[in-house]
TrEMBL record:
Upper classification of the organism: Eukaryota, Viridiplantae, Streptophyta, Embryophyta, Tracheophyta
Transmembrane regions listed in the UniProt entry: 738-759
Its EC number(s): 2.7.11.1
Any one GO CC term of the record: plasma membrane
Protein's UniProt name: Non-specific serine/threonine protein kinase
Keywords assigned: Cell membrane, Glycoprotein, Kinase, Leucine-rich repeat, Membrane, Repeat, Serine/threonine-protein kinase, Signal, Transferase, Transmembrane, Transmembrane helix
The organism's place on the tree of life at top rank: Eukaryota
């Protein structure tokens, strides 16, 4: 806001409503605002205003609505706010306010109906009884973004609320942390609740299903990520108005009630994931005619999926059954049902059978954006209709028993994972599209070379074609895929040198070229990799609660509206296998933004280890084992501050193990076995005190603990030091001097030979006899050859 605007604003003495929402205003609230004594409504939401709140706001005695949502205000709330006795609506959510919330700030606001303090940086304890005398209060929002804020509801003991709430959000607020994390007892007296969010609070005890009996108008209930236990099936009270129930991430046991449709006849979104529920899905769940989203993942459900789940739920769009014990041929046959299902997770179960052909006009998957059937026992081939699913979809069939050739279709995938199956033939060029970000083809039986069409993967982040039967040279154009973060080409039959163009991949965090037939030296320019400039992977659940359940709509006509926010449906988590500490680990989600490694093991690489690799300071894993590398271990490997696994075994390295490596405080695996190393081992300090003799075996000239070889003066003088060897590089030789000395040596040799023949008659005669015999031998050989031809 400019100063001219401030001056002009101050002249509106009779102004009652100031609505400046959703602009790009910056700076502070002008102190001249106190001159607008007639103001009843101030809405400055969704701007970029900052600074602390001016005390001039406290002089606006007629103010009824103050909306400062989604700005960058800082500092503490002025305590003089308690003088705004006419205030009905107060929303300061999504700012950066700090400090505590004193009870005196709230207690005198007797007209208050709506208050939202969510998404700030408040700390300390807040007593909910501060609201007890606010008889008009209907909506309260506390959604904390840190673990330093606590809401206390049980003190003073026996307090009685004068309000009847319609909406309450107490998420991540450490509710009653010092009282055993119990459910707030004042809720027993609340009978008008429509929306209740008490997620992320570690509350304990039995499932408070009485909340649904106590509040017959309850539409939204979220108890996710607490520690509620007990049996889910009983008691479960009927509530015809409940449309959204999220009880995920708790400790519930038992089964889904057989007649759940009687308890929740109007349910649209049901999330019971992350519990200990078991048994089959009741067949009557197909009678939940309003159901749009169902998440039963990460439980112990078993049996077959009832057919009614696919045939009757015509509104179902999201179905997640991951990580259970389901079995049966769930996708076999002709899947031609009139459903709107767009997101289907069947992964990590025991499903089997073939995948039936999909009638895209009337199909269970007639336009899916996401299909995940990974980690099951599906067999056969992928039907052509899968490749003709909706535009820019995500498909994951990892770790099944599927085979044949992958069909080409009209689909432009953004995420495609068909790894760990039996697909064969050449890699289909039709898979390539500019929209593709994650391509996993590893652990199959693909043959041939890398298609030239891969040069068009301009937005690719993950490319996994490892553990196949691919051959030929690694294409240079891979170095032009500037966005790529993970490149896995290991366990194939690639040959030739490592292309220097790969050094251009500065955003690569994981590079695996192991288990091939690569030769030549290691390019020193690989120091350029492992420098990601941004985070590319996320770890967001497909189903999460709303960021705020209550949103101010119009500063003049209404004070709050309770809006059904849809679940956030994110893309699939990327998952890759990478060998770390001699084991193959699966890395998933945002861990991939942290993990970094370089694996060149099991090839035919020669030459010295480039000292430049010591500049890979972010790297966690470096594996150069099972090659033909020579020379010393670079001293500057001591700069690999984040290294956890360093494997240089089965090479022909020589010299000492640098004592400077003791600085590597994160090193967990160190292996230099079966080389030609010599001299005293590094002192058994820090991480080196954890390495046993297995790390050094196959090097008979090494000595010192933990080996049995004792260091003597003779053993220490056998080899020069690493510092001396680091300067003995053949490619640093003066070639002009080399050729000069070589030519002069031969010239002196020939002169000496001629002088010998002139001085010694005996050797002169022997030389002439030798020349004559060579001439006769050649003559008779040629004669015999001509005679045989004729």
């Amino acid at each position: 806001m400019s100063c001219y605007f401030y001056i002009a604003l101050a002249s509106f003495h009779h102004l009652e409503v100031l609505d400046l929402e959703d602009n790009h205003f910056v700076g502070n609230i002008p102190s001249t605002i106190k001159a607008l004594s007639s103001l009843k409504v101030i809405s400055l939401a969704y701007n970029n205003l900052n600074g602390s709140l001016d005390h001039g706001l406290c002089e606006l005695k007629n103010l009824q609505e103050l909306n400062l949502k989604d700005n960058m205000f800082t500092g503490k709330l002025p305590e003089c706010f308690n003088m705004l006795s006419s205030l009905k609506f107060l929303d300061i959510s999504s700012n950066q306010f700090i400090g505590t919330l004193p009870p005196s700030l709230i207690a005198n606001l007797t007209s208050l109906e709506y208050v939202d303090f969510s998404h700030n940086k408040f700390e300390g304890s807040f007593s909910f009884s501060s609201f007890s005398n606010l008889k008009n209060l209907e909506v309260v929002g506390f959604i904390s973004d840190n673990d330093k804020f606590e809401v206390e509801t049980e003190e003073p003991r026996g307090w009685n609320p004068m309000f009847q709430l319609k909406g309450l959000a107490l998420s991540n607020c450490n509710i009653n942390m010092h009282k055993g994390s119990v459910v707030p007892s004042f809720l027993l007296q609340q009978h008008r609740l429509k929306k209740l969010d008490m997620s992320h609070n570690s509350m304990e005890g039995d499932i408070p299903t009485w909340l649904m009996k106590n509040n017959t108008m309850l539409e939204f209930l979220s108890l996710m990520n607490n520690s509620f236990g007990g049996v889910f099936s009983k008691p479960f009270y009927r509530n015809p108005n409940t449309r959204w129930l999220d009880m995920s991430g708790n400790l519930m046991k038992g089964a889904i009630p057989k007649e759940i449709q009687k308890s929740l006849p109007s349910i649209t979104r049901l999330n019971l994931s992350g519990n200990y529920l078991e048994g089959p899905i009741p067949s009557l769940i197909g009678d939940l005619s309003e159901l749009e989203t169902l998440d039963l993942s990460q439980n112990r459900f078993s049996g077959e999926v009832p057919l009614g789940l696919f045939t009757n739920l015509t509104r179902l769009e999201v179905l997640k059954l991951s990580n259970n014990i389901f079995h049966g041929e769930v996708l076999s046959g002709n899947l031609s049902f009139k459903l709107r299902l767009s997101i289907l997770h069947l992964d990590s179960n025991y499903f089997s059978g073939k995948i039936g052909d999909l009638d895209n006009k009337r199909s269970i998957l007639s336009g899916p954006s996401l299909l995940d059937i990974s980690n099951n026992f599906f067999t056969g081939s992928i039907p052509d209709s899968i490749s003709n699913m909706s535009y820019e979809s995500e498909l994951v069939v990892r770790n099944n028993r599927l085979g044949g050739q992958f069909p080409c279709g009209t689909n432009s995938f953004t995420f495609l994972d068909i790894s760990q199956n039996h697909f064969s033939g050449s890699i289909p060029s039709c898979l390539v599209s500019e929209s593709l970000k994650h391509l996993h083809l590893g652990s199959n039986a693909f043959t041939g070379s890398i298609p030239n069409s891969f040069c068009n993967l301009t937005n690719i982040l993950t490319l996994d074609i490892g553990n196949n039967r691919l051959f030929g040279r690694i294409p240079k154009f891979l170095g032009e895929l500037s966005n790529i973060r993970i490149l896995l080409l290991g366990k194939n039959e690639f040959s030739g040198n490592i292309p220097k163009q790969l050094c251009q991949l500065t955003n690569v965090s994981l590079l695996d070229l192991s288990g091939n037939f690569l030769s030549g030296s290691i390019p020193g320019c690989l120091q350029n990799i492992n420098r990601p400039s941004y985070q590319a992977f996320t770890d967001v659940d497909h189903f999460s609660g709303p960021s705020s359940s209550y949103s101010y709509r119009n500063p003049r006509n209404s004070w709050f509206s309770m809006i059904d926010h849809p679940y956030e449906v994110s893309g699939l988590q990327d998952e890759v296998l990478f060998t770390t500490k001699t084991l193959s680990y699966a890395y998933k989600g945002n861990v991939l933004d942290i993990m970094s490694g370089l694996d060149l093991s099991c090839n035919k690489l020669i030459g010295y280890i480039p000292e430049e690799l010591g500049l890979l300071t972010r790297i966690h894993v470096l594996n150069l084992s099972h090659n033909k590398l020579t020379g010393p271990i670079p001293v500057n490997f001591s700069s690999l501050a984040n290294i956890e696994s360093l494997d240089l075994s089965f090479n022909s390295l020589s010299g000492n193990i640098p004592q400077e490596l003791i600085k590597l405080n994160t090193l967990a695996i160190f292996n230099v076995s079966y080389n030609n190393l010599s001299g005293r081992l590094p002192e058994m300090k820090a991480q080196f005190s954890t390495f046993n003799k297995e790390s050094y075996k196959g090097n008979p000239l090494l000595c010192g603990p933990p080996l049995e070889n004792q260091c003597t003066i003779q053993s220490l003088m056998i080899q020069p030091t690493n510092e001396e060897r680091s300067h003995e590089k053949w490619y640093n030789m003066d070639m002009a001097s080399f050729y000069g000395s070589f030519g002069s040596t031969w010239f002196v040799f020939i002169l000496g030979f001629i002088a010998l023949l002139c001085v010694n008659p005996y050797w002169k005669r022997r030389w002439l006899d030798f020349v004559e015999e060579c001439m006769y031998t050649c003559y008779y050989f040629l004669c015999d050859l001509v005679w045989k031809i004729l």
